[in-house]
């Protein structure tokens, strides 16, 4: 009876580091997203859009891409007395 092992070591059990995949990268900025819908939303509402709503309140400097955010801000911070929205 001869019993022999093959000399080759099987190494396919080696754990591989799993890279964090963020396959959806914005081409216009550094942002990347795991899901396409997030990138689409980013492109539509965030990227490539200047904040177009600015608070008029003296030395406040708040600005937002969303009118509703500015409105909220003005009511919260300045009791709504600053901007005419
Ligand atoms: Zn972007
Ligand atoms: Zn304001
Ligand atoms: Zn403000």
From TrEMBL:
Parts of the chain that traverse the membrane: none
Domain C2H2-type: 24-51, 53-80
SMART domains xref list: ZnF_C2H2
GO MF annotation: an example: zinc ion binding
Domain of life: Eukaryota
Keywords of this entry: Metal-binding, Zinc, Zinc-finger
Keyword Hydrolase: no
SUPFAM superfamilies the UniProt entry points to: beta-beta-alpha zinc fingers
InterPro entries membership: Znf_C2H2_sf, Znf_C2H2_type
Protein name: C2H2-type domain-containing protein
